[in-house]
Design a protein that fits this description.
Four copies of one chain form a homotetramer.
Chain A (H helix, E strand, L loop, with lengths): L2 E4 L20 E2 L1 E7 L4 H11 L7 E7 L4 E7 L2 H4 L14 E7 L14 E5 L2 E11 L2 H10 L9 H11 L4 H11 L2 E9 L3 E5 L8 E7 L4 E7 L3 H4 L4 E5 L5 E5 L2 E5 L9 E2 L1 H6 L5 E2 L2 E2 H15 L6 E4 L5 H11 L7 E3 L12 H4 L7 E3 L1 H4 L3 E6 L6 H12 L4 E6 L12 E2 L7 H4 L2 H8 L3 E4 L2 H7 L12 E2 L1 H4 L7 H5 L5 E4 L2 E3 L4
Parallel strand pairs in A: 1-27, 16-26, 19-22, 22-23, 23-25
Antiparallel strand pairs in A: 2-24, 3-6, 3-12, 4-5, 4-6, 7-8, 8-9, 9-10, 10-14, 11-12, 11-13, 14-15, 17-18, 20-21
């Protein structure tokens, strides 16, 4: 991942209180949500963001417009805590239009100034922008903009877009199109001006964005909605209209909904990891049920790797649908062999040496009644650093399993993502530095199986991966990056470009 | 439930910020935990309480002893938040012995003074007490004690016990035994003095309490542990020795572990609802795996009620094991048809009228891919007021189910519990005021089935319920209360006795 | 001072965040306030306590009664912060009667449980008690009470009184009188029951208590008020009726105000330090204006000690009236030579070595324009440890003073107070361990003068001190203690008796 | 005052919790402080800002540089609270150079983004800027900058300066000079880059700025300091070198201190209100002791207005030095007739109707012993709206004064300040809408006297006001504005120009 750093110290050194017991997972960076045409637009947005919480848990923000003023609140924390009614914030975010954002930092330090939606006061008035994705030439453009007198306040790539718009000419949409034509990367954007709610997806369509509608039968009106996933529509009872299409710009205003395709057409490459892990299982993404996709992957995995075993156990919660698929296909019973504790606080208990070895149990406990004396198939979605996998295998063995077979519903994660996912550097990816057998030995399981690349595509309903023209972006497994990585190429090899950065102190 | 009230206003009128989106569930009132013989006894206790969080989420507290002083921290909130390391509290709770408590208020308002463990300074020194259960003659005894000059500081039944001890004679254990001989009710107690860690279960053994051991191979020492459930042992890697027996008092000190049975023997009546809902599925309670018990109940349910259907869907998380059992027995596929959002904050979003109808979706969403066009068996553990059940059925129908069959893995909940469980008054229990058909209609499902009483006992490995001598306390289903309800009998019919009460203001 | 300790560690070791830049002053322990007969009794009480803030800054509390329920809020912090309207606490303290308390801990650790008013549920109903003073046989009585089964929740001497009442017979006032007949010490008490507001002063009348009245012309009603000082009446526009008399018990209820003198008459011994430092200069205490008394002391000081000098400079704020008196008498001009910064937070800036030497300047700065090249008379009220005096002399010399003459408007403080004032142990009192010349040298001034004992009495309008029958309690100067010190006599010599104590952790 | 507003709603409508019991005073907008060449530069800065707290109490901020990174903390609140050591913030602000700022909002809403120092990442690296004063053509320039693509993040005039620098060419100092040549207004600036600490005063020298030095004898090094007033030097034991001169730019780096005068010379017009009220009495400002200046004004006042009276009473704290001067000149005794309570919290007690009339007494109480039966001269520094004066006169009469003569140590405040002082609009200035006699009647005093303009200049050591070339800026009394008011001229008459503004919600 490309990090924006200050001087020589990588920003990632700043500890900002991530859960020390967090899973060894890739993390989606962001969710976006927008709505125009209802009272309490900010409340609807808060609910939408709450349903999209899994896409970003570091910070959340809403900007709304009441016909006269823009109002905003942006803060580190979960949606349900930041917009807790006892704090009285949402109540002050009045207006009929709003956009919101959940963030899991990819570029930019965890500074309050980086929390989206960003807002700028243009000649034509105010504009708020929220972005899911990552621009791969943001630093390149930033240097050029700074040279011409632009003052950046954040370290986000999104601000680059705003400065490009400030230097463009014409109407809001003219400027937005001009700016987007200069950027490279993956993005699903929502923007809010005094008159318009706008949604755009990059020409490759790497990140998801859906369009929905919420009818108010009492008033005979209806509101349009943009949301990263359909679960953001479900929570407010809105109906899905369709996915926003790759390269499409949707403009919603008083006169209704307008669509255009202002960019040169390119081959679509939707992120396949959205199906494996990022999206919520109850979302329908690009026409596929995520739950069904995961079950299909579990079935493929069972077909590719028929292990004799007594019980199929998911690593909760993400491994559940694949494990059900695996169990259905293999006929081995599905059981809840690992119980997850949902009450973990952010920084519970200083892990002294004596406590430290307890590690993973804070979140998980083996269900001995299901495990003891059994040959266990463990189903997980992916292996990133491999640290958690090792602890879970240890826990399962301690609970009396006679054999542990680890089945992974993705191919080995060998490459970093530069399109909006928080990936460790390659040197930390287990699959980038070890052979399969080395991985198995390190994790301590009896067998270790990843689904094949073709198996994964088969689960998506295709005959296999067409390497000449793959249907999805699978760069994290294949290293085949569909969008130019300008900033990486210009950086000093370790992927970190330099920016002068103000380090804001956070308060306990 | 018997509530302690002030004047004419029932204490339950005080709103103390319960989750407005909470399940329609009975709530276990408390967890207890104690450990003697390790450094960082309070940290171990915090971890144990964290694993026992499901038994009480309103408040938590720890009292420890460092050889010279007792230290305490007691606060409203979850264990992981109260003892978050950034607050530096656990670090100050030094010592080799500690007891702790999670509380879900049954008696006593949510006042800080009511948070356990309680502590008193006796002639012989300090004593801390934590209690899971409910004393059914606490108010009766309290009136007598006040008449003799006792000053109560809390409204908990546990303080009655402490005053009884203060007026008894002899050693700590003499006084504890004398006091317990005067009380009626259900209790699993842990106590900590300067020298001893004590655990006691009432003669009926209504509430669980297990004894464990944590060896420190490096030092060649080992610590004894008392915990409400085995999951409190698992989290710190401790080994279960055995259940504390009904009527047993275990005293742990420098000289080791001592057991006695100071009370008249009575028939055991362990709470059967611990298997149905309260205990964690990975706990082994009174010799039974909770997970296995739930699966067995699910199987009995399928045998008693063979519905033709396409899919078995649990109401997460508590309905999962029964649903797996149901699916295994019936052959109908088990699917995750309802997705739970684990990020809900306590008081998220003021439910305006427009928002209110969204209701249950904050926590749950139907997984349309699994539901649409299907005949659905929904498996839940119990129905209390029925409000949530109705909303879930509505949600499942909205997702396209053609039939909805609700199967409940407990008999109808017709009576209040007075032994330590937070039950609404009978008038609010759906099954106490409606026929089965009325309930079905109110909930809106096609069929509604509860497991039979005999089926429930069969799932526990018995031939059925022996009504002359039932093996379990099942008063909430049968109205057969095994322990006298003195305070209820003396109260004014609505179950609320009168106490003068100081209403402490809480701060935002 | 007698401190209640736990085991061998004195409670005073517990650092509870006192202002590290605090003055070297004795501290009055408490203020009391009570009102009956107005709406918003708690708001009036909060205002009264705010005016009495100088008498106790550690914690504050209010208990009120609304005709049905008692309500309370008690918390560490200043009145204006604890009852800040944004927190919404006072708004919930409804009712027509209330008592309140400001606390500066004398006995009892800074635990929330120790914050007054204390409240107890007696057979006859609830009673709240707030206390200014100190009982000198509280521990002696406490041991006896514990032996008879009383459970203490706090470490305050006030709770001893409550347990004595619980074991007494008869009506509320019977019990209160019976309990007070058993205690020794200094006290001004206010109590609130469902029917009565009661005020009592000990027979010596060591601590002040005034009676006032607040008429509501609109309603034709009037409320009675009890307050430690008249400034507590002024702030709410109430009129002073008279001082409560030594040994008097005033009972206010629906039928009006009743006075009785239930104790054996004793010689009055009002605390003379109230005039020197504790009371607010705008209060009228026992018939004397505090401001006038201080000016008269300054005048005496100038008469006793006519120093040739250029400028009279008060150490703000307490030295101001004496300095004005000194200047008027001596004809030397009064100037503000030391400027005080009123913005100091509680724990501002960790004093690293480099910063530490800056010390006293956080609160004070020399006004060079007034000091430079001048012979300066510095007027302060007292010297306790002498640490601040040395720093101030240093600062004045650094600002260019040619001579520094320190004039103190009290005799040397040679003895501890046991009647409700927070005094260091004798070993820390500068005047108890040094000669006058040693003190002068240690402080670094050119001359050091204390007012004589007779001069002090002259300033109070008397011919001098009648050592056979002194008009005031002046034990801190004379060692002549008018009330028996039972607990001190029974303690182990260092003044600290032993109690088992629970140390509650506070949160940052 | 010119306020930056959003749409039609003036920003001043936003209630941000100002003290409801605040004095009726003009408020200085800001303090600046900078230091280069010591360890713990941020701690020194926090201390300096603490000493300068009187110049701005809304917010405070520090930016420091550690040789590699810039660190910052900026927050609403007092210095001693924001940088309270328990919060651990200052400890993280490491480095040898720092600048800081206290803010009392003049332009810009109380948004976190507006808290200074501002920081920007230029081509040449990072730069932090803190500003005391007000730019009178900031909006004019802002519109032009936005047109050319600048994106503003704050609503402060200071950001205009930063964008001007971004569009300028050359070195940091070249750009700063170029930018400053384009702005009009009053400013004392401090800037911090990776290499330099810079201080600049506007050519008129309206706002103060002093240069100091702090030697570290142990290391043989010394640090340079820039501070709004000398009290910021005193607190850290630093020595004053001299005032920064009007139009001077001082650059401090490794090679020492460099001075230049890059602007066209103009007549000096230091703000005379700094002597009357803004500056601390112990500061030496432009060669005059503020305390001496105030005493001299008091003397002039007594000469111009010899009232027969019994006592001279200051309105504390600002009226004290003038009252001493008045008393010395008139021979009438100086007495503390009003006692100030220093414990007022920000929003203490919701002022219900019943409570509201108590008003001013929360902060002040009349000292009856001094007032009763006396003819009182009350000395105050200024009258702005007149509301407080009326309440104080009422309070003094209620305490028994026979006559009340109000003497004001400034001429009538008839005009708004546009140079960095928070003044109400003219329509709210009592002296702008009433005759002297009307004012007297409204305030309710027997006589009301303001010092004459010539008297004020005489007190400053001049023969009187030279109306052709006044020595000071006295626009608030004379309407003679020495610096062009471009934005006012371009605004819509009510002084408020329009900006699109994001309204950030504040929490609790």
């Amino acid at each position: 991942m490309m990090t924006v750093s200050s001087g020589d110290t990588p920003v990632s050194d700043i500890d900002f209180g991530t859960d020390p017991f967090d899973d060894d997972k890739l993390h989606e960076e962001c969710a976006v949500f927008g709505i125009l045409g209802t009272d309490d637009a900010a409340k609807h947005t808060a609910l939408g963001l709450h349903a999209l919480q899994h896409r970003g848990q570091e910070a959340t923000g809403i900007v709304c417009y009441d016909g006269t003023d823009f109002h905003a609140h942006r803060e580190l924390g979960h949606v349900g805590d930041v917009f807790d009614k006892d704090r009285g914030i949402v109540e002050k975010l009045v207006g009929h239009a709003a956009i919101g954002h959940n963030r899991y930092s990819t570029t930019g330090a965890p500074m309050v100034r980086n929390i989206q939606p960003l807002f700028a006061d243009f000649e034509f008035g105010g504009l708020a922008v929220a972005h899911n994705g990552n621009l791969t030439n943001a630093l390149h453009l930033r240097k050029e903009l700074v040279k011409h007198g632009s003052i950046f306040q954040s370290t986000t790539d999104t601000e680059t877009l705003i400065h490009l718009m400030a230097h463009a000419k014409g109407s809001l949409t003219d400027r937005l199109i001009a700016a987007l034509r200069r950027v490279e990367g993956a993005y699903s954007l929502v923007c809010l001006s005094r008159k318009k709610l706008i949604g755009v997806r990059d020409p490759r369509g790497v990140r998801p964005l859906v369009l929905g509608k919420l009818a108010d039968p009492a008033k005979g009106t209806s509101a349009y909605i943009l949301s990263s996933e359909t679960c953001g529509l479900d929570i407010i009872g809105a109906e899905k209209i369709r996915d926003v299409k790759p390269g499409e710009m949707i403009v919603i205003d008083d006169t209704g909904l307008h669509s255009e395709f202002p960019f040169e057409k390119q081959e679509e490459r939707f992120c396949i990891f959205e199906y494996i892990y990022f999206s919520r299982p109850d979302s329908i993404v690009e026409g596929h049920s995520v739950y069904d996709a995961r079950k299909a992957i579990g079935r493929e995995l069972a077909r590719e790797n028929p292990v004799p075993a007594d019980v199929v156990v998911p690593i909760p919660d993400s491994g559940v649908p694949s494990a059900i698929g695996y169990a259905e296909e293999s006929g081995i019973p599905f059981q809840y062999g690992i119980i997850r504790n949902h009450y973990v606080g952010r920084t519970f208990i200083e892990p002294t040496d004596e406590i430290r070895h307890l590690g993973v149990k804070l979140k998980h406990n083996a269900n001995r009644a299901v495990i003891e004396g059994k040959r266990v198939v463990l189903v997980d979605d992916s292996i990133v650093r491999g640290t958690t996998s090792r602890k879970i295998v240890e826990m399962i063995r301690a609970a009396g399993a006679t054999e542990v077979h680890m089945c992974i519903s993705s191919p080995p994660t060998t490459h970093s993502c530069f399109y909006g996912v928080d990936t460790p550097e390659r040197s930390q990816l287990m699959a980038a530095r070890m052979s399969l057998e080395e991985m198995r030995a390190a994790i301590g399981c009896d067998t270790l199986t990843f689904i094949s690349m073709d198996g994964l595509y088969r689960a998506m309903g295709l005959p296999g991966r067409d390497s000449a023209k793959p249907a999805y972006c699978d760069a994290c497994f294949s290293g085949d990056y569909p969008i130019t990585l300008t900033d990486v190429a210009e950086s000093d090899g370790n992927g970190a470009a330099k920016l002068s950065l103000l380090r804001e102190q956070k308060v306990g």
